Amino acid sequence: MIREASGAELAPGREVPAGGEVRVAQVATVRERDRFIRFQEEVYRGDPWFVPPLLMERHEFLDPARNPFFRHADVALFLATRREEVVGRIAAVEDRNFNAFHGGRTGYFGLYESVDDPAVAEALFGAARAWARRRGLASLIGPMNLSTNYEAGLLVEGFESSPAILMPYNPPWYARLFEGCGLAKAKDLLAFSRSSHDPVPERFVRVAEKIRNHQGIRVRSLDLRRFGEEVERIKAVYNSAWEKNWGFVPMTDAEFDKLARDLKPLVRPELCLVAEDQGEPVAFSLTVPDVNQALKRVGGRLTTWGIPVGLARLLYWQRRIDEVRLIALGVKEGYRRRGLDAVLILDTIRRTRDLGYRGGEVSWTLEDNDLVNRAIEAVGCRRTKRYRVYETALD
Amino acid sequence: MRDLFDKCASWKEVQVVKLAGRYPYYRVIDETDGTEVVVDGKRLIMACSNNYLGLANDPRVREAAAEAARTWGASTCGSRLLNGTLRLHDELDRRLARFLGKEAAVVFPTGFQANVGAIDSLVLRHDLVIADRMVHASLVEGMNASLGRTRRFGHNDVEDLERILAAAEPEAGKLVVVDGVYSMEGDLANLPAIVALKNRYGARLMVDEAHGFGVLGAGGRGAAEHFGVAGEVDLVMATFSKSLGSIGGVIAGRADVVNWIKHKARPLVFSASMTPPMAAAALKALEIIEQEPERRERLWDISERVHRELRAMGFDTEPSVTPIVPIVLGDQVLAFDYWRRLTEAGIFASPVVKPAAEKELVRVVFMATHTDAQIDRALEIFERCGRELGVIPYRRPASRVEVRLARPGVSGFWSSRPEGAAAAGLAGGGSLELGELLGRRDEPLARRLADAAEVVTWRAVNAGPEELRELRELPVRLWRQRRRIAARLLSAGMERVARARAGEERRGEERRGDDRRGEEARP
Ligand SMILES: Cc1ncc(COP(=O)(O)O)c(C=O)c1O
């Protein structure tokens, strides 16, 4: 569909314009989705920090028949072209679960990539806005790839390293393009990191141990042999734990199960902790080896000219990962503000060190979640990256 | 010698159904006010009329028809080409063209004739017409009548459509034909994706808006307006026998194309024109549709309520996103049994069986003029009969999937099935398929093979039980396709050889040309 083009409409059989006109068309076929996905490689060619996602994984992620996210969300992918060449891409999303949860009529944009050209950005946002307006949405937030349960935010500080697993990365100029298109900051997300060499401050250890003993909390590892049941337990805590947070949207069972299935091969049970009170799970933390370290060596493909070189590399480097990311930590309603998070963090740090990891990232947190941010800094984490979620009203 | 009529005498199916008391067709209606009818002395709620807005029974429309009969007579007794074009027909042509945003329009005696006439006259010997597998019978009739080549693509399967378009002869004129709203199951054509494809391949698009006209889109102009692609539909067809409460059909499009159809469409040229009362009724109804959008609102409200309630009871109304509510039963006997119970309990509905629908169903449509009390009563009957027959549980299920209807302003999906609720445009998803990857003729063969290897490796690495089964069949499939793969490799090689030889050929050409001239000279 070429209707939202910045220039004239595409009449049937019309010649491709000779000038630099940017055209935006909605992705209609698998073939075009393939171009949408592959365009990313071009943007980051030569970028030392970029971690190319696996091509096939992206296809699966954007396949409405395979990704359960699409059961409660409508997604339109747009490709911007100039003289037949792809110069940008964007997704527009209506997540019905988000709007049912928060009320209001908010849409997302996401999966943004483009060359450094305001005209391209303008055309892409024009298409996303028009799409959202047609559905009666009142505003857009993003980037969401494709919701806060996946990757969210635009990297605005901390460009000097690769992103951790399931964290976004982008060229620094995107912020300028976004702001040029009238987007304004909605919220910042923070990432912290920590080296295993740094000792945990004495005071923190004392406090955490006291909480553990006083409350009779037992921390145990995930039982991989009962993976299904464990997932159910964590799901219950997860969906009750985040309720009031900005941007949060509960995961459906199908989404949670898919995420669990995707993460299962990466998981080290020693790093997935469940805190129990009298045998009842009341909090959990999820830390996984930062597979991006291995993925970076693979270049997005499991095979080279048909030979599974990438797969071999992935398996080889996967065993040499030396960093982790603490992805999620949730405490059940009724157990909050009792310091359970401190216990889980302390145990995670100890186990990470004992397993021989060099360190890791804690991400992400809301910039204004002072309680959590202060606790993270109290164990010796440094703030390393800042991601920005933008918003724009639709008239 | 066989008598032509033998088959009729020995045809038992209908008699059996009649004897079993389950014959649902050709029922004689003795009285009607639109929303209720009397059949065999019994009052039934009419729940399957296409009189969506109730205009067939609107006093203003009736009066317009009566007035036209008094002024113009009962019939024109002539084709539009000759003595059958009254001021009424001319005005209707022009009003509809304006309403549909097209240069010109021409009115046919029925929608059926409009479809046959348009396709038959436009698609000539070297042309190609491609239709969705579920399009209305009148469009299929048009395809059968035309001299061109005909192809069908899987229902809303835009990848299938693209394959057909890509494989078409470049010289063939191409017409893609779809229903805006599919009349039995109430889902829409995935128009955004279809429009993108027809633009890419330089095809023309015809949309049958029979059930979308007066119902979908902010102005009631149909599914194309709903999706915001009305400007990209080359030929719009609509009938007056649904929302307009009359009978007749229209084709609207570019002026030169409509002019062609006016002179070449045999169902138009060789059939008497719309009767004056029907033309006047349609004109009046069009006026009301433009002035009273609240009727559409009411229709959507009622439909939403019916979908919701039926789903809450445990019925399946997929894939509809429109006022056409399919109560999907998936079994022919069940459909007829349910229909009979509904009739006994006071509802006039219609069973639909294969191949008219993908699964057997009872088709239910309410009208903007039904009262809330009538809907209450009907819903109560649907539930009671459903329980008695065991098609829904006695206790309402704890959860359900909420329906989302294609109301004005709520677009981006064409079906209430999960795949149809996904991105309009990215039709039902689909994964990278080996066949498609290998068939990308514009890419080097080595790259295609590398991509295919990537897909196979990914599947192998991520294989679950289902995929494993599929993978086990892969060698078999590759073996079956061995000729095609070999042929592709061969043709790639031959192409190169051919190119290398091109210069030589050209030189040879002149010599052969001389020879031929020599032959001609020899008598
Ligand atoms: C999709 C579709 N097209 C065309 C027609 C034919 O219309 P008419 O009743 O005007 O002949 C119908 C009606 O049955 C229809 O449902």
Structure description:
The complex is a heterodimer of chains A (395) and B (523). Chain A folds into two domains: 22-189, Aminopeptidase; 194-386, Aminopeptidase (3-Layer(aba) Sandwich). Chain A is 33% helix and 28% strand. Chain A has helices at 30-43, 55-61, 96-102, 118-134, 173-180, 202-215, 227-241, 253-263, 292-295, 309-318, 340-354, 370-378; strands at 22-26, 73-82, 85-95, 106-114, 139-142, 144-145, 151-152, 154-157, 184-195, 217-221, 272-277, 280-289, 323-331, 359-366, 382-393. The radius of gyration of chain A is 22 Å and the shape is globular. Mean pLDDT of chain A is 85; it is low at 1-19. Chain B is α/β, with parallel strands linked by helices and 523 residues long. Helix content of chain B is 47%, strand content 11%. Chain B contains 19 helices and 14 strands. In chain B, the strands form three sheets. Chain B has a seven-stranded mixed sheet with strand order 4-10-9-8-7-5-6, sandwiched between helices. In chain B, strands 1-2-3-12 form a four-stranded mixed sheet. A three-stranded antiparallel sheet of chain B has the order 11-14-13, with helices on one face. The relative contact order of chain B is 0.12. The interface between A and B is large, with 48 and 49 residues. Pyridoxal-5'-phosphate binds at residues 110-112, 115, 136, 138, 179, 183, 208, 210-211, 239, 241, 247, 249 of chain B.
Q: Using DSSP, what is the number of strands of chain A?
A: 15
Going across the biggest sheet of chain B, name each strand in turn. 4-10-9-8-7-5-6
Radius of gyration of chain B: 27 Å
Which two chains touch over the largest interface?
Answer: A-B, 48 and 49 residues
Superfamily at the CATH H level of the largest domain in chain A?
Gcn5-related N-acetyltransferase (GNAT)
Q: How would you name the oligomeric state of the polypeptide chains in this document?
A: heterodimer
> Fraction of residues of chain B in helices?
40-55%
How many separate helices of chain B? 19
Structural class of chain B: alpha/beta
Based on the structure given, which CATH architecture of the largest domain in chain A is correct? 3-Layer(aba) Sandwich
Strand content of chain B: 5-15%
Order of helices and strands of chain A: EHHEEHEHEEEEHEHEHHEEHHEHEHE
Q: Tell me the structural class of chain A.
A: alpha+beta
The stretches of 5 or more residues of chain A where confidence is low (pLDDT under 50) are 1-19
